[in-house]
Amino acid sequence: MNISISQELCRRLINDCYTKLPQESCGMLLGTIKGNHLEVKDFIPISNRSNQPNQHFVMDSQEWVEQWNLTLHNSKEIIGIYHSHPSTPAIPSLEDLTTLWHTLPSYWIISLMNPKAPEVCAYSLFPSTAKNPQHDCGNVLLYEKIPYVLK
Question: Residue 22 belongs to a domain with what CATH number?
Fold first, then answer.
């Protein structure tokens, strides 16, 4: 699988994450899927309702459903989600690896750890049989980095 995103859209996504600091930003990515290629065409920020928003994200379920319904009515496709890591690398955390978001084609993390050089990484998450050692919430997901092209 490969992904493309415009430089302008990637810049807007990073800027939106900066505006939410020190909290984690989160939202949905819209675009198209053609065979093994994803093209990101837009993003929609969703409010973070975590009790610890500086360290975790929980998307506002009402906003998610409203935006999901709008995408259906506008013939748009949700091709992934994104969230920021304000002070850690753009690598899935244990919390990320126990998410239910693995059913979407892409899972993006934007690291703002180095403010002068933000890092954007896209991943594919998939189930494993490994158990989460810190939580009794099921299996840990495996991940694979997906290359993307700025156009």
Answer: 3.40.140.10
